[in-house]
Amino acid sequence: MSASQHELLVERAESLDDMDLADLCEATDAAIIEGGGFGWVEPQGREALARHFRGVLLVPGCELFIARLDGVPVGSAQLIRPPRNNEAQAFGAQLTHAYIAPYARGHGLARLLVRRVEERAAALGHRVLNLDVRETQSTAIALFEALGYTRWGTHPAYARVRGRTVAGHYYHKLLEPPHGRPLDMRAGAPQN
């Protein structure tokens, strides 16, 4: 494999071995330090992040996706499904905590990560994927907009980062149902 060719893989995690967990924690802290892709603004260290990811794997309605570069975990994303008692919004899901470590960017993994989450959400019957992102994460914003996400709102006091209040943008994307059936989310449109 030449220096310009890398193996890209995104998979849904049901468990994490110690080596993968260590690599994922390192990638997460690197993304936090760089300022993108996670809700934390200060690095958390391996112990705290290991507890976090082990907890994510236990939460009903939450699926963890791991992005790998040459077999090594370098990023992740979470698909959050609405609770069973929220039938009115069961058609939608949330994409959250999506990031790729700074040292693994530029290979197309972020795009692949988002696509895999979209595919899984659609396969589970969700027809809308929602997400939100800090205004300071311009690379993530450009990616989501290039992938067809529609910005529907901005919260002017969305987060506090290093003593500064920053805005956040809210996005949604209509997902294509599996098997190419047409999707019509207009009020009163016939549903399949």
Tags for this model:
4 helices, 7 strands, 32% strand, seven-stranded mixed β-sheet, 29% helix, GNAT family N-acetyltransferase, Aminopeptidase, alpha+beta, disordered C terminus, 192 residues
Which secondary structure elements does this structure contain, and how are they paired or packed?
Layout: E1 8-13, H1 18-34, H2 45-58, E2 62-69, E3 72-80, E4 92-100, H3 109-123, E5 128-134, H4 138-146, E6 150-161, E7 164-174
Parallel strand pairs: 4-5
Antiparallel strand pairs: 1-2, 2-3, 3-4, 5-7, 6-7
Note down, in words, how this protein is organized.
By secondary structure, the protein is α+β, with helices and mostly antiparallel strands. It contains four helices and seven strands, in the order βααβββαβαββ. Keywords: Acyltransferase, Transferase.
| Text of the CATH class | Alpha Beta
Spans where pLDDT lies below 50 across 5 or more residues: 181-192
Strand arrangement, major sheet: 1-2-3-4-5-7-6
Q: Kindly state the percentage of residues in helix.
A: 25-40%
N-to-C terminal Cα separation, in Å?
Answer: 46 Å
Query: What would you say the CATH architecture is?
Result: 3-Layer(aba) Sandwich
| Total tally of structural domains | 1
Pfam families: Acetyltransf_1
InterPro entries: Acyl_CoA_acyltransferase, Bact_Acetyltransf, GNAT_dom
Protein name: GNAT family N-acetyltransferase
Keywords: Acyltransferase, Transferase
